[in-house]
Amino acid sequence: MIDSITVKNLSKSYGEKQVLRGVSFSVKHGEVFSLLGVNGAGKTTTIECLEGLRKWQEGEIVVEGISVRQHPEKLRKVFGVQLQSTALSENMTAKEAMRLFCVWHGVKYRGDLLTRFDMDGEYLNKPYAKLSTGRKRRLHLALALCHNPRVLVLDEPTAGLDVEGRNTLHREICRLRDEGVTILMATHDMAEAEALSDRIAILRDGVIAREGTPMELTAASNIQNRVYIKTRGGSLRENTPEALGMPETTMEGYSVWKCRDAAELLLLILPHIKACDDIVSDLRIERASVEDIFLSVAGGAK
Ligand SMILES: Nc1ncnc2c1ncn2[C@@H]1O[C@H](COP(=O)(O)OP(=O)(O)OP(=O)(O)O)[C@@H](O)[C@H]1O
Question: What range(s) does the ABC transporter domain occupy (predicted)?
Fold first, then answer.
């Protein structure tokens, strides 16, 4: 079995309102796959169908070889689902929550997970309501992993966290991926998606409008790159070859070109600098980011 998750032609309406119109994607084992889309694009709906929590009208979903429509009861073993922030009762402690989850999944108490997520010591017996958002997120992740799920589903895993909390969770997500867990994530954080994902899909108007690795998505875009070059002798400020054209702008001593193909531009510029007996003192290429691609794709959503 190559794919951990396969979603084929998924269509889902709430009453008259059609939200998904034939969504298809697949996630390989041990891959981090991010689903992006504007508010209301249908990310959570897709995830909830996948978890067997919602019925849908058309299409097929298979997770770890299990047909979600036919055997939703078999999914509990397979999935680890991170809770929403209001999901535990206010007075419950981390230790009690872990006990509860372990009993529910029929496994031994997993104090090791509370230690791994730094939820032992002073946090172990603190009421849930008194934990910070970051600590709650750590606890949710620890609980989601108590039965060693093969697939982890994360909906906005780092929303509202500070930089340190975000980095900690990112490290854990990478670690879980390295341990072979398949991770499906919905996020609005483009930098997070770009840094963590093996592949990304952008939902728009009820279908997957773009899909690929972060490199593929950004390389295939029509968004122009910016090339910044500074030389010691300033040879780019005058006498640039005709084919090159003058820089679009200069900034803090850098000549700046906008171009689709940075390599082509450099093949013209660098020989010119050398021919002028000049030396490059700094060179930067600003590529289109996943956020740029997202804005160009999802920005046109109805
Ligand atoms: N239970 C429901 N009944 C009716 N409409 C719903 C229901 N749940 C979601 N919707 C609608 O379906 C659409 C998709 O919602 P969904 O929550 O899946 O989007 P999302 O991409 O996760 O959005 P967000 O980024 O805001 O979380 C929205 O228009 C929403 O109003």
Answer: 5-230
